[in-house]
Write a structure and sequence with these properties.
- The chain contains seven helices and 14 strands.
- With 255 residues, it is an alpha/beta fold.
- The strands form four sheets. It has an eight-stranded mixed sheet, with helices on both faces. A two-stranded antiparallel sheet has the order 3-4.
- The longest helix has 11 residues, at 8-18.
């Protein structure tokens, strides 16, 4: 039987995986998004096609990749594309239902920072940067974000740096994006959501034992709350067993 204690990684992966029900194609980032999409393949979305930034399409790796360049991603994949084909045909061609990303910071409109913490010229922390995240944001029909930490340093009214602008910011700068931008944010406190352009993220669900006041205090703007706020169902024994025994038995990302 699974252990009774559920870790933050297990909670986030299980809850995020459920959001992929009914989706056909997902562009997955490495880390928690990898856990979530792999679990979704075994549960709510068995036919979902997973695409990775390294050009792998229809990924079915024998075990979890440790990096985006891990050769295990090619195992039993349906295709491996060049970068021009991946970004030009798949992403810019509008063939991705959901872009699944992580970030260090997010604001109320779903703009993301994965570049620096602090001032650009003298940052406190330098992060990996965009990679393909900006293209994923601009060209996916919608974007899901999973974040380990929900606090005012990660959920800000103003980002330290905007790596991946959502459609609202892009439109303000004269660029017309293809998709709705960030529509779901899954955190250790609950789920934030928006429908698309012109809407702020609002709290639509909390985890058991989490109050609205807790989430508001952890958010760096005046967070709106849905009228039909729900409580998230915790990970089931079946989801935990799959995560621990099948998806990530080597604890690459589970911790």
């Amino acid at each position: 039987m699974p252990e009774t204690t559920t870790t933050s990684s297990e909670l986030l992966a299980a809850v995020a995986s459920r959001e992929l029900a009914g989706k056909n194609t997902v562009f997955a980032g490495i880390g928690l998004p990898t856990l979530a999409v792999s679990l979704a393949q075994l549960t709510v979305a068995p036919d979902i096609e997973i695409v990775y930034e390294s050009g792998v399409c229809g990924a079915h790796p024998s075990h979890l990749p440790e990096t985006i360049a891990d050769s295990v991603l090619i195992t039993d994949s349906e295709a491996v594309l060049s970068m021009p084909a991946l970004f030009g045909y798949v992403l810019q061609g509008g063939r991705i239902d959901v872009g699944f990303l992580g970030a260090a910071q997010i604001d109320r409109w779903g703009n993301l920072n994965s570049s620096v913490i602090g001032d650009w010229h003298a940052p406190k922390v330098r992060l990996p940067g965009s990679g393909g995240a900006m293209e994923v944001m601009a060209n996916s029909r919608e974007v899901f974000v999973v974040m380990r930490r929900h606090d005012p340093r990660s959920f800000l009214s103003e980002l330290d740096f905007c790596t991946s602008p959502g459609p609202d910011r892009a439109l303000r700068d004269g660029i017309r994006p293809r998709g709705a931008g960030v529509t779901r944010v899954i955190t250790d406190l609950g789920i934030l959501a928006r429908e698309g352009v012109g809407e702020e993220l609002r709290l639509v669900a909390t985890h058991p034992g989490v109050t609205v006041d807790q989430v508001r205090e952890a958010t760096g703007w005046d967070l709106a709350v849905a009228d039909d706020l729900i409580t998230v169902e915790p990970p089931t024994d079946a989801e935990l067993r799959l995560l621990r025994d099948d998806v990530d038995p080597d604890r690459v990302y589970l911790r």
